[in-house]
Structure formats: structure tokens, C-alpha cells
Specification:
translocase; 1247 residues; elongated; Phospholipid-transporting ATPase
């Protein structure tokens, strides 16, 4: 039976009265409610079927139709759509893809538009305009223009480099070659030139250029194997088939050139698991489904040649539809700085206005009467005050200097390089280093609260290994000698005795091999015979297994290594090698797996005429069907519990001998059920139940779904850092839960809550009902803190399927009603409290808030059977309602939407599928590197950036506000000198820049050992408005000290030469020198990690200051620029006075002493976790060194007695194909010499 049909038929209809009393969604069905089309809607009521009289029908858009070998057909007017005014273009997308943002014409305007979204850039542009006005300017206009151009230029170059990389990637893909049938000839054409309706020819290992309807193949019966690594990160093969009629008639070039079939199909959508269409050819209609489609991004494998018809191209393909929107990502610190710029600007306006008013009164009272201030302009006092206001806006602009943004970009670039250069994140096996694909999000890595991870290929390797088994009550799999003596450590079995063995297969129990080879243990022989016969695996000429799931491949491979080799199958026979004998068994019936049965059976006629049923399945369903005479049930159950505690995936194996009469009677009922028209699946299930009774237990298998290295330790470490991890996967519930335990996401002390439990206890419904009876005053805008959902103590975990997620969030009902009513031309009526629908948008939003609150109370959340769009929706809900910083990590195209939606997107690279990497912000090869990315690089980046910003604001407030105090003694005249320009450029920039690049409170090993050090970043406690105002008041305090202590020293002083050095230039030298000493010593106090470079920067900055100051006041520069440098010898004269040096020392000491005291008291009385680790750093480092010398203990799995999931494919196997005989390859003529090349390739379910 067709898989798509099965999935569709198994989808239950939502009950109109809500979830109560309804069957609920099928946990095994992947719901795509947001993409359901009119074709899929089932009639839900008589009302839906009746059209109201006089109802107006909205215009119905023509359905997509594709005509083979007719490009002109797709340009007809009915296939045109309006793009702008009267401009129209074809509704069919071209095959060229575009992921870049800019082109030659749009780069400058679009990039400038994006950059001027940053408030600071607009602020600097306004300053530049003010500085051009001669009456206002107090600084040369180029002092702002040059830094602004540098900032915009650096950012633009960085954006250009990133976009050129996207251009190169797009060009590489668009210029790939493929063979297209044009004018009766096969021509090599670039992908960009492929169009809808073209017939293409694909060869082995070719990437598929578009979504293509398969027509024919070189394999028997048009079977084709594809690898879907680009879609889902898996390298497992899936099979696709062409229609029988096209495969038989369209093998040659001339037949393909004459093909004129018309395809009617669904609209382009993002559903990777579904396709519905019809082919009209030679007046016959043929149904099409996903099994007939080759999706773009997949690769042809094990197939020499196949032909196909392009249905969707370029942006319309499913892989591109799953990409989601590219979002402009900004860090929380960036957003906070925008608001701080508003705050500083408001403060600046207030200060400038106050000083302008002061200047107005001063000029009216004093300035106008002072003859030496006469400038001949005749401006009134109010006019001069107005000009002074703008002058102060320019003078005091150093509160937000443009050098801040230059420094921030340099720091971010440096942090990105450190990530790229980290050898501990380099994966040598695949030669894959870590890669920071953006430079703007590094500090956000130190603030992650939620991680959303894919499962397959991200947490797991998608490699199944046969690890243990129990046969007739005896367990095997631990290291054991051939005589049965247990060992602490063993060596793998040597398979050289078996010419068919897979050399990659490892097994540690030599006693089981000896038992099987001896031929004395009938149960062991029956065990492996069952594994070699009861499956839907297919084999090709090279003895490569094609399995419906990697689990099946692992079991058949295990049987092969133990001497029971599956060799070949036809429509009604299976041939295996048993030791030295080759036996063929007649296959009488194959009872395939599905999600309800959770088992599969095969009925065989042995060479001696006996009829036997072999069955394997989940222990929960097998034990219900065992005979009362079955032996070893208790010992097998004990072994199953042990396997489950080790998070292995288990299967029970059993058999039943059937008499000829019993089989004949059952076969009649089976044939009758096969032709039933109504509810055929249920009829077949009932017949299967009749024969699968009174089974005899043989034993059980235990398979390990191999995790990536270090996954459990990484998850445990991140959990200690208070980072919550949600797994979002398309796998079934049992598999996802099993992996949850394997990787330590779920632990024994957690209370597991399932989606159906959430509905059954009506936790969400009760809250909805309560809100409905509340008075209107409690509605929007007055949300009260909600009570917790889980009142019991202890940890909680939530496991929910995509179907239940839609039920809880109303997504399915909402979409179905809207589509049904749109089809009828009616509007959606208002909801009532009785119909289970949200009454308004506010109620729907509150339901979402309730779900997010409930899920976030859990330590871990697993969402299984979810679609790519649902993954992105879950991420956006947490971002929206928790205001949390999120990270998504995945490895396939089905994760791209989630990666783009999260604040940080991480792609797993090194695999063949690179779609996730191309859309990510950071990429590396193994999940375990996430620990180092966050706890080391992320935490350091956040601490460095926060320390940099706090200090940068402090030093500029301290500097700028000195001008403010001086204004009260200078007639409020906004006059400045070269010191303003050089202060942030030369005197104080390098030390703080190096702190932002190199500082670390503790080293990387201690950062990993103490995950609690990560908490300040999540809380945002190192840089926020509180820290901003502390920096502001610290700057105010220091500016007061810097100005008024020298001012007091200059009031009544006498130099050694008997003259009073009371000129304001000497005063400026003292205040400037004090400021430079204070700023550089303050950053020294704040530096946690000293290097030679830091020492050089601090001492060098002070030396540069004195060097430039003496040059500015030298006679030589006065001779060259007499108009600009008029104070010859002022600096040397002032600094010859000892009491002025005493003034500098006093100013510096009074400024720094409170800071030293506060730091001492805070670290002594209220030490943070970081302070405590720093205090005992040497002890901890010594402990780490000692631990590294000792061997680390092996990871211990949980000890919880539970049933592991049924270790089989999530969809049906190949039973229908086998029974039809369509997919059977030609039997090889000989097998000599193949033993060394035999390998097993695991295969997962169809997409």
C-alpha cells in the first residue's frame, strides 16, 4: 500500500468540541497543518458540503500543470502572475537560486540603509552636518567624517566579503552541469538554464538539479536509490520508483523526446514527506506521489542512469521552500546600546541646553561688556546661546565616540578568529575546523538560555550496531572468552573464518560465536536464521544491503557475520547461506511493519515442507501474543530490562509452526482482506492478528543507536550551566525518548509528561476556561504571574508530538476551518466558547503563553514527529514569550528554518549535507564542540565585551564632563583643542581594546569545570542599565576630582621661580595628565589576564601621550604651524614644578582609592562564583592536571527499568515492493571474490 496514502488515511479528524473525547492526533503522523491545501481537506459536516444560495466564489487560480518537452506552454497567459503594476512574469520559477543579498547596483544603497538603522550612525551623521556649519562648528568637520567613513567602510567590506562568499556558492551551484533533452538531443546544460517541463538525464553520483518526476531507470522496474544528506544530513539511501508505464515506454532518447505527458500537481510547498499529482498521457490518468519524485539536493546512488521530468525548479523546490526567511540578527548588547545611545543623547541635549542658557545669561551680564571679547558680529545674547547649544552638542559628542564602534567591530573580528583557530574544536577525522561564519554575534554566545537541537546526525551518528542479545534465557554481548569466562576487557571477534563477514562489525562475546559455529545449540541457530530471513532488506549485485531502516541493516549484518548470510530474494523466495550450505525458502506471506502493529512477520515453507512463521517486534506487543508453553519469558524480560537500562533498542524474536490446513484457511481470509475496498488496513490487521498468536519466544536483540562522541557529557555540562535543551526531531516518540535517555537529556529522577497526558489532565484547558470567566479588566495588558503547572517537587520533562503540538496551539483546527470556508467563499465566523476554538487573537496568544510557560518549567523537552516549520515555530514561541536568547543546532535542510529563526544558528559540518552549514552563524563537525563554543568562547566574549563597554563609557564620561565643569569658569564657551581628537585615538584606546580581545577571568579548563560561571551572561548582569549608570556616576565622580583638585591647586600657588603658573594651558596639562594616568591605571585594575602586550599597551599609551604633548608645545611645531600651536613650552614649564606632580599624584590617588576599596570589599564579603574560582585558581589547576594524568572513568548510563522503543523504521518497509516483484534485482551469476568488498549500508525511512 502506498505510504503517503497510509499516512493520510491514518490522520484523525479533529473533534469539533475540542480535544475532550476525541481520539487525538496520531503520534506517528508528521502534521503539516500550515501547508495543508484544499485537496487534503476532508468533508467535516453537511454544512461544509452545502453552498449557500447566491454565494460568490472567489476567483480560483489555475492549478500548476507541467507539460513535458514544451517550454512555450509554461509561458501562456494563464500561467503569468503580476509582479509590479502591469509587469507580469511566469508563475514557474527558474532553476537559478539566489541566496545573496546584494548585487552591483543595490550594494551601496542597501548596505548604507542597513547600517543607518544603527542609531549611532545617524547620530554621527547629524554631528557631521553640524560641523559643516561655520558658526556652530568647534571641531574640523573631517574629524567626524574620516572615522564615520572608516566605520561604514569596514562594515561594508565585511558585509561584501560575506555576500561574495554567497555569490560564489550560488554561482557554483547554478553552474553545475546536467544533461537535458532539447530538440531531440541530449545536451549538457547548466542548472540555471533548466526549466520546468524539461526532461533530464541523471547518472550515478549526480546531484538532482530540481524536483523531478522520475520516468525511467536503468535498474529493473525503474527503481532508483537516492542519498538525502543535503535534506536531512543522513547518508542512508532511500528508494524511488517511476511509473510502470513510463518505465516501459520511455527508455530511449527518441521515446523521451516524443513524451508529451501533462502533469497536474499541488502548489509548491515545504512538505518533504508528501506530493500529490496526476499525469495525463495518451488519454489515461496516472496517480503520482512522493515515491515517484526525486527531490533537489539528493544524490543518485547505485543507479547507472535515470530520466525525469522537471516539476518544480529553483525557489519552488522543496529544499528551498524549507529554507525560511533570512533574518537580520543582532545581539542583546546591540539592542541595549541603541537604547543607551538614546539615553546619552537625551542627557547630552539637557547638558548642552543648560550650558547654552548659562552662556546666554553670562554674555548678557558680562561678555557683552568685555571689550576684549568683541568679535564684530553683533549677535544678540540669545542668538549666541543658540549657537553655543549646537557647539556643545559637538564638543560633548565624545560621550558616544565613533571610535567605540570601530573598537567593537575589531573585538568581534578578533573573537571570531579565535574560534576559527581553536584546535580543540578541530575535527581531524574529516579535516574540519570550527568556523565563525559571522562576526557580529560572538558575545551572544555567552547568554544562551535555550538550545534547540535536531537528533539524527546532530546528537547521533545514525549508525546502528548489534551490541547484545539474549537467546533461550542466556545473555550475550559482554567481553567473554570462547569458553564463557567473563573478562573486564576483551578483544573483538576475528571473523576471518567467514568469507562473507563485514569486517567493520565488532562483537566482544567469543562464546556466542563458538556456540553458533558448533551447531549444537538449536536456539542460537534458530535465532540467527530468523534474523537472516525475517526482514524486508534487498540486496544488489555487489552484496550491498538496501534496508528500510538502519536497524534492519544492523540485524541482517549481524546474522551474516555469525554465518547466516542473506544472499538473494525473488518475489516468492529468500536464499541464505547457512554455514557451508545455501538454502532457499519459499515466502508464503510477508506481514509488514507499521506504527500500530510494531512488529513484522514472515511465513516461510522450509525445504523439508514445514511451514513456519517468524516474528520480531516490540516486547510490549510480542509478550501479549506468546503461547503459555513459551519458555524463558522471565529471564528474557530481565535481560530486556538490563538492555533498556543501557538505553539499547530492543526487539523480541519468536516463531510459530503452522500446519498446512491452518495456513490454507488463513490464506483464504488473507486474500479476501487484500481486495476489500473499505478500510483495507483494518481488515488486514485483523487477519494478521489471527495468525500471530501462540508464539514461541526465542530471545531478544539489543541495538545501540550510536551517539556522537561526548554528547552525554556535553549535555550534562550544559545543564549545569542552566541551559535548557530541547530536542526537535521528525523521529517517532519511542526513538526520541530512547535517545533522550542515551544522551543524558532525560535522567532517572525526572517525571516524564507526555503530550496526551497534558491534554488528558486538561492543564491548558482549565486555564483557558478560567480566563473566559474572568472579568474584562483581567484581559489584555494585565497579565498576572501564573501559578506553576507542575506543583510536585522534582524535575520534569515533556515529550510531545507534532500532532499534539498542533492540537494544543489550535494550529490544525484553525487552518482546516480557514481553508474549508475559503473554498466555500465564506468568512470565518466568530468562535464561541463551546466549539473549542480561540475566541480571539488574545485567547490564542494566551494559549501559546501557557504552553511555553509549561514547557519552560521542564528541565528537558522533546518534540517528536515535528515538521521543519514546527521546529521554527517552537523556537519563535520561546523567543517571543520568554525573551530568551536561543540557539538552534542541526545538520540538514530540515533544520535550516530553525537555524535561521534562533538568535544563534549552528550547523554541523563535515557531513555530506551542507545546507544547515550554509545557513548557520557558526559551524563545526561535532555536537560536543558546542560545550566549548558556549562555556569558553561565548563566556569570554561576553565578559570581554561587557568589560570593554563599561570601561569605554566610564573613560569618556570622565573625559567629557571635565569640559562641563570647565564651562562654568570659561563663560560657557564651547572651545576645544587637539586633545579631544587624540584622546580616543591614541591615549586610551589600545589598553581597553586589548582587554576586549584577550582578557579572561579564568582559563578555558576552569571555565569548563565550573559551568556556573556561565550564569552572569544568561542574567545579563555584566552589562545593563544598572552598569551603565554606575559607569556614568563613576565618570562624574572622577571628572569632579580631575577638575577641582587641580583647580584648587592653581588658585593660590607660586612656582619655584616666584611666578604663579596660573595660565589655563598649564592647568590643562595637569588635568589631562591626571586623566591619562587614571584611565590607564583603572583599566590595569580591571584587567584579569596580564600579558606582555597589555603591559606594553598601558605604558605605551602613557608614553605616547607625553611624547605628543611635548611635541605640541615645542618650538619646532610652532614654527611650522604658528596659527594652530601657540603655547610654546607650556607643558615643559608646568611639569618642571614638583607641586604640580604632587597634584597629579593626589588626583590619581583620590580617584582610584574608592575603586580599590570597593573591589576589595566586594570580592572579600560578597564574592561571586568567578571570584571564588579566581581565588583558588592554582589549587583547581593543580587538580585538573592530576585528573588529566589519571584515566577518566567511563560514562555510566542510567539505571532505570523501562521499555526501550521498537527498533525499526518509522514507515513501512519494502514489503509491497518485494511482494510485487518490482524491485528485485537480477540474481548475480557468481559470488566468488566478493567477500572482501561486501559492505552493509544502512537505510532509513522514506522522507
Amino acid at each position: 500500500m502506498n505510504l503517503t496514502y497510509c499516512l493520510k488515511m491514518s490522520r484523525p479528524r479533529a473533534d469539533s468540541q475540542g480535544s475532550q473525547g476525541s481520539r487525538g492526533p496520531d503520534d506517528e503522523v508528521m502534521p503539516y497543518s500550515d501547508d495543508e491545501t484544499d485537496d487534503e481537506l476532508e468533508p467535516e459536516s453537511d454544512e461544509a458540503q452545502e453552498e449557500p444560495p447566491g454565494a460568490e466564489h472567489p476567483p480560483v487560480e489555475a492549478r500548476p500543470s507541467v507539460k513535458a518537452n514544451d517550454r512555450a506552454y509554461h509561458q501562456l497567459p494563464e500561467f503569468q502572475k503580476k509582479v509590479f503594476l502591469c509587469i507580469k512574469k511566469s508563475r514557474y520559477s527558474g532553476n537559478a537560486i539566489k541566496t545573496y543579498k546584494y548585487n552591483a547596483l543595490t550594494f551601496i544603497p542597501l548596505n548604507l540603509y542597513e547600517q543607518f538603522k544603527r542609531v549611532a550612525n545617524v547620530y554621527f551623521l547629524a554631528l557631521l552636518i553640524l560641523q559643516i556649519i561655520p558658526d556652530i562648528t568647534t571641531l574640523p568637520w573631517y574629524t567626524t567624517l574620516i572615522p564615520l567613513v572608516v566605520v561604514l567602510g569596514i562594515t561594508a567590506i565585511k558585509d561584501l566579503v560575506d555576500d561574495l562568499a554567497r555569490h560564489r556558492m550560488d554561482k557554483e551551484i547554478n553552474n553545475r552541469k546536467t544533461e537535458v533533452l532539447l530538440d531531440g538531443r541530449s545536451e549538457h546544460t547548466q542548472w540555471r538554464d533548466v526549466q520546468v517541463g524539461d526532461v533530464v538525464r541523471l547518472k550515478k553520483n549526480d546531484f538532482i538539479p530540481a524536483d523531478i518526476l522520475m520516468l525511467s531507470s536503468s535498474n529493473p522496474n525503474s527503481l532508483c536509490y537516492v542519498e538525502t544528506a543535503e535534506l536531512d544530513g543522513e547518508t542512508n539511501l532511500k528508494f524511488k520508483m517511476g511509473l510502470r508505464v513510463t518505465d516501459e515506454r520511455l527508455q530511449g532518447v527518441h521515446e523521451l523526446a516524443d513524451f508529451d505527458g501533462l502533469i497536474e500537481c499541488e502548489e509548491p510547498n515545504n512538505r518533504l514527506d508528501k506530493f500529490i499529482g496526476t499525469m495525463l498521457w495518451n488519454r489515461e490518468r496516472y496517480p503520482l506521489d512522493l515515491d515517484n519524485m526525486l527531490l533537489r539536493g539528493c544524490k543518485i546512488r547505485n543507479t547507472d542512469v535515470c530520466h525525469g521530468l522537471v516539476i518544480f525548479a529553483g525557489a519552488d523546490t522543496k529544499i528551498m521552500k524549507n529554507g525560511g526567511k533570512t533574518r537580520f540578527k543582532r545581539t542583546k548588547i546591540d539592542e541595549l546600546m541603541n537604547y543607551m545611545v538614546y539615553t546619552i543623547f537625551a542627557l547630552l541635549v539637557l547638558v548642552a541646553a543648560g550650558l547654552a542658557i548659562g552662556h546666554t545669561f553670562w554674555y548678557d551680564q558680562i561678555g557683552a561688556k568685555a571689550w576684549y571679547l568683541f568679535d564684530g558680529k553683533g549677535y544678540s545674547a540669545s542668538h549666541r546661546g543658540f549657537l553655543s547649544f549646537w557647539g556643545y552638542i559637538i564638543v560633548l559628542n565624545t560621550m558616544v565616540p565613533i571610535s567605540l564602534y570601530v573598537s567593537v567591530e575589531v573585538i568581534r573580528l578578533g573573537q571570531s578568529k579565535f574560534i576559527n583557530w581553536d584546535l580543540q574544536m578541530y575535527y581531524a577525522d574529516k579535516d574540519t575546523p570550527a568556523k565563525a561564519r559571522t562576526t557580529t554575534l560572538n558575545e551572544q554566545l555567552g547568554q544562551i538560555e535555550y538550545i534547540f537541537s535536531d537528533k539524527t546526525g546532530t546528537l547521533t551518528q545514525n549508525i546502528m550496531q548489534f551490541k547484545k542479545c539474549t537467546i533461550a534465557g542466556r545473555s550475550y554481548g559482554n567481553p567473554t572468552t570462547a569458553e564463557g569466562v567473563s573478562l573486564d576487557r576483551g578483544r573483538p571477534v576475528d571473523w576471518s573464518w567467514n568469507r562473507y563477514a563485514d569486517k567493520m562489525f565488532q562483537f566482544m562475546d567469543h562464546s556466542l560465536v563458538a556456540t553458533v559455529r558448533s551447531g549444537k545449540d538449536k536456539d542460537a541457530m534458530e535465532f540467527f536464521k530468523l534474523l537472516s530471513l525475517c526482514h524486508t532488506v534487498m540486496v544488489d549485485e555487489d552484496m550491498v544491503y538496501q534496508a528500510a531502516s538502519p536497524d534492519e541493516g544492523a540485524l541482517v549484518t549481524a546474522a551474516r557475520n555469525f554465518g547466516y548470510v542473506f544472499l538473494n530474494r525473488t518475489q516468492d523466495t529468500i536464499t541464505i547461506q547457512e554455514g557451508d550450505k545455501e538454502n532457499s525458502y519459499e515466502m508464503l506471506a510477508l506481514l509488514d511493519f507499521n506504527s500500530d502493529r510494531k512488529r513484522m512477520s514472515i511465513i516461510l515453507r522450509f525445504p523439508d515442507g514445514r511451514i513456519r512463521l517468524y516474528c520480531k517486534g516490540a516486547d510490549t506487543v510480542i509478550y501479549e501474543r506468546l503461547s503459555a508453553e513459551s519458555k524463558h519469558t522471565k529471564s528474557t524480560q530481565t535481560a530486556l530490562d538490563i538492555f533498556a537500562n543501557e538505553t539499547l533498542r530492543t526487539l523480541c524474536l519468536c516463531y510459530k509452526d503452522i500446519s498446512a490446513g491452518e495456513y490454507e484457511a488463513w490464506e483464504r481470509r488473507h486474500k479476501e482482506a487484500q481486495v476489500v475496498l473499505a478500510d483495507r488496513d483494518a481488515a488486514l490487521d485483523r487477519v494478521y492478528e489471527d495468525i500471530e498468536k501462540n508464539l514461541m519466544l526465542i530471545g531478544a536483540t539489543a541495538i545501540e543507536d550510536k551517539l556522537q562522541d561526548g554528547v552525554p557529557e556535553t549535555i550534562a555540562k550544559l545543564a549545569k550551566a542552566d541551559i535548557k535543551i530541547w530536542v526537535l526531531t521528525g523521529d517517532k516518540k519511542e526513538t526520541a525518548e530512547n535517545i533522550g535517555y542515551s544522551c543524558s537529556l532525560l535522567t532517572d529522577d525526572m517525571q516524564i509528561h507526555y503530550g496526551e497526558d497534558v491534554k488528558s489532565v486538561q492543564k491548558l484547558s482549565v486555564r483557558q476556561t478560567t480566563r473566559r470567566v474572568q472579568p474584562q479588566s483581567n484581559r489584555p495588558g494585565k497579565r498576572k504571574p501564573a501559578d506553576p503547572f507542575f506543583t510536585q517537587t522534582g524535575k520534569n520533562a515533556l515529550i510531545i508530538t507534532g500532532g499534539w503540538l498542533n492540537e494544543i496551539l489550535y494550529e490544525k483546527k484553525k487552518k482546516r476551518r480557514r481553508l474549508r470556508l475559503r473554498r466555500l467563499g465564506r468568512r470565518l465566523p466568530p468562535s464561541s466558547p463551546q466549539d473549542g476554538q480561540p475566541m480571539n487573537d488574545w485567547e490564542k496568544e494566551q494559549r501559546q503563553v501557557d504552553f511555553v510557560d509549561m514547557a519552560c518549567e521542564c528541565e528537558a523537552v522533546i518534540c517528536c514527529r515535528v515538521t521543519p516549520k514546527q521546529k521554527a515555530n517552537v523556537v519563535s514561541l520561546v523567543k517571543k514569550y520568554k525573551k530568551a536568547v536561543t540557539l538552534s543546532i542541526g545538520d540538514g535542510a530540515n533544520d535550516v528554518n530553525m537555524i535561521k529563526t534562533a538568535d544563534i544558528g549552528v550547523g554541523i559540518s563535515g557531513q555530506e549535507g551542507m545546507q544547515a552549514v550554509m545557513s548557520s552563524d557558526y559551524a563545526f563537525a561535532q555536537f560536543r564542540y558546542l560545550e566549548r563554543l558556549l562555556l569558553v568562547h561565548g563566556r569570554w566574549s561576553y565578559i570581554r565585551m561587557c568589560k570593554f563597554l563599561r570601561f569605554f563609557f566610564f573613560k569618556n564620561f570622565a573625559f567629557t564632563l571635565v569640559h562641563f565643569w570647565f564651562s562654568f569658569f570659561s563663560g560657557y564657551s564651547s572651545q576645544v583643542n587637539w586633545f579631544i581628537t587624540l584622546y580616543n585615538l591614541c591615549y586610551s584606546s589600545l589598553p581597553v581594546l586589548l582587554v576586549g580581545l584577550l582578557d579572561q577571568d579564568v582559563n578555558d579548563k576552569l571555565s569548563l569545570r565550573f559551568p556556573k560561571l556561565y550564569l552572569p551572561g544568561q542574567q545579563g548582569s555584566l552589562f545593563n542599565y544598572k552598569n551603565f549608570f554606575i559607569s556614568l556616576f563613576h565618570g562624574i565622580f572622577v571628572s569632579l576630582i580631575i577638575f577641582f583638585i587641580p583647580y584648587g591647586a592653581f588658585l593660590q600657588t607660586m612656582g619655584q621661580d616666584g611666578e604663579a603658573p596660573s595660565d589655563y594651558q598649564s592647568f590643562a596639562v595637569v588635568t589631562a595628565s591626571s586623566l591619562i594616568f587614571i584611565v590607564n591605571l583603572q583599566i590595569s585594575l580591571d584587567t584579569s589576564y596580564w600579558t606582555f602586550v597589555n603591559c606594553f599597551a598601558v605604558l605605551g599609551s602613557i608614553a605616547i601621550y607625553f611624547g605628543i604633548m611635548f611635541d605640541i608645545h615645542s618650538a619646532g611645531i610652532h614654527v611650522i604651524f604658528p596659527a594652530y600651536f601657540t603655547f610654546t613650552g607650556a607643558a615643559s614649564n608646568a611639569l618642571r614644578q614638583p607641586y604640580l606632580w604632587l597634584t597629579i599624584v593626589l588626583t590619581v590617588g583620590i580617584s582610584l582609592l574608592p575603586v580599590i576599596c570597593i573591589q576589595f570589599l566586594s570580592k572579600t564579603i560578597w564574592p561571586s562564583v568567578g571570584d571564588q574560582v579566581q581565588r583558588n585558581r592554582k589549587k583547581y589547576e593543580a587538580d585538573l592536571e592530576r585528573e588529566e594524568r589519571e584515566k577518566a572513568p567511563a560514562f555510566q548510563r542510567g539505571r532505570r527499568s523501562r521499555r526501550s522503543g521498537y527498533a525499526f523504521s518509522h514507515s513501512q518497509g519494502y514489503a509491497d515492493l518485494i511482494s510485487s516483484g518490482r524491485s528485485i534485482r537480477r540474481k548475480p551469476t557468481g559470488r566468488a571474490g566478493l567477500q572482501q568488498s561486501i559492505r552493509e549500508v544502512p537505510h532509513a525511512e522514506n522522507i
